[in-house]
Specification:
Strand content: 15-25%
Organism: Altericroceibacterium endophyticum
Bound molecules: ligand C2E, magnesium ion
Number of helices: 11
Number of strands: 9
Order of helices and strands: HEEEHHEHHEHEHEHHEHEH
Radius of gyration: 21 Å
Largest sheet: 8 strands, mixed, barrel
Helix content: 40-55%
Structural class: alpha/beta
Protein name: EAL domain-containing protein
Domain EAL: 24-274
């Protein structure tokens, strides 16, 4: 009886795995088609400078609407693109799109593009970025690149060399989701990041946790000494914005200020010349 049950268990398990594999393969094919047709779009989320109280940049966030399933979260399709070898093509496409779309906005608004660690392994990232700037005509000073600690796992020396080269074009380099996972303070000895984006989890706890408050203040102090801007992301309440400003964060981003916007809405949002004060 026991053997039979196990046997059936295995069959059911196999069938489920099989269905998941087929499902995944279908999603992968749909994604490949969408990339080939240049259908992955970008939404842009404003980042507010606390000092000036205005929008200083917007972050480009990938958006894919599957023809049948509707919107698929970027965490999901970016992973998929990384796993099935599509990320370099997609990443290049999004860089071009972001640079092109940013040309329609006021010249004091920069655009930040997220990069996958795999784009650094392709060998032609520098050319790709230079080409996106040249074709669009966007000045390098208006492009920022967001990288994550995932980048620092493999081939660290080569990675930092590539970051240096990108930076020497005049592009600001941000470290995203800082303070969780394996991100390490020693990165700052290796490379002068222009901006540090504190992970949202610190923002979530900022009003309730003394530890998060101390961490944010310490990172902000480091930023001041090392001449790095400190961005707090995922801000949803005024209380959070007030504290983060008080603790020395130089930039704020989150639903409190704006959800990610369609490219044609960025200009209006920026020119509403809203001055944010949380004092
Ligand atoms: P990320 O770069 O850390 O982006 C921040 C995420 O937080 C975005 O989710 C944004 O919409 C969300 N967010 C912003 N403000 C708030 C808030 O106040 N509350 C909450 N709950 N969430 C907020 P999204 O667009 O789903 O992107 C998720 C992740 O997907 C990104 O994290 C990034 O790692 C990745 N991603 C998105 N676009 C791209 C891309 O073009 N290339 C690459 N390589 N990765 C991308
Ligand atoms: Mg980001
Ligand atoms: Mg982030
Ligand atoms: Mg993230």
């Amino acid at each position: 009886y026991r053997a039979k049950r196990d046997h059936r268990g295995i069959c059911l398990f196999d069938a489920k795995m099989d269905a998941e594999m087929r499902d995944r393969r279908r999603l992968e094919n749909a994604l490949r088609k969408a990339v080939e047709a240049n259908q992955i779009e970008l939404a842009y989320q404003p980042v507010i400078s606390t000092y000036q109280g205005r929008v200083s940049s917007v972050e480009a966030l990938a958006r894919w609407s599957h023809p049948v399933r509707g919107p698929i979260p970027p965490d999901c399709f970016i992973d998929l693109a990384e796993e099935c070898g599509l990320i370099n093509k997609l990443g290049e496409q999004l860089l071009h799109r972001a640079c092109r779309e940013a040309c329609d906005w006021p010249a004091n608004v920069a655009v930040a593009v997220n990069l996958s660690p795999l784009q650094f392994q392709s060998g032609d990232l520098l050319d790709t970025v230079a080409c996106a700037l040249k074709e669009s005509g966007l000045p390098a000073q208006r492009l920022q690149l967001e990288v994550t600690e995932g980048l620092m796992i493999k081939d660290v020396d080569r990675t930092f060399r590539q970051l240096e080269e990108l930076r020497s074009l005049g592009i600001a380099i941000l470290i995203d989701d800082f303070g969780v996972g394996y991100s390490s303070l020693s990165y700052f000895e290796r490379f002068p990041f222009d901006k540090v984006k504190l992970d949202k989890s610190f923002v979530d706890r900022i009003t309730t946790s003394k530890t998060s408050q101390a961490i944010v203040q310490a990172v902000a102090g480091l930023g001041e000494k090392l001449d790095m801007a400190i961005v707090a992301e995922g801000i949803e309440t005024k209380a959070q914005a007030r504290l983060l400003t008080e603790y020395g964060c130089t930039h704020l981003q989150g639903y409190l200020f704006s959800r990610p916007l369609a490219p044609q809405s960025v200009r209006d949002f920026v020119s509403e010349t809203k001055v944010y004060a949380h004092g």
